[in-house]
Amino acid sequence: xxxxxxxxxxxxxxxxxxxxxxxxxxxxxxxxxxxxxxxxxxxxxxxxxxxxxxxxxxxxxxxx
Length: 64
Known about the structure:
- It is built from 4 helices and no strands.
- The protein is mainly alpha-helical.
- The N and C termini lie far apart (55 Å).
């Protein structure tokens, strides 16, 4: 019951501020994880760490 008592004693502004911080911290993590899943395991690293000319040589560009 100790954790519930801590939450009960906090003000609503503190709880909302903590929620915003957690949201802003975890959003890039899950977004990049999903982008890596869609593009492929090595492709996201190639986009970050290889030059644009050499990154586009090994895989075709997806066009609609």
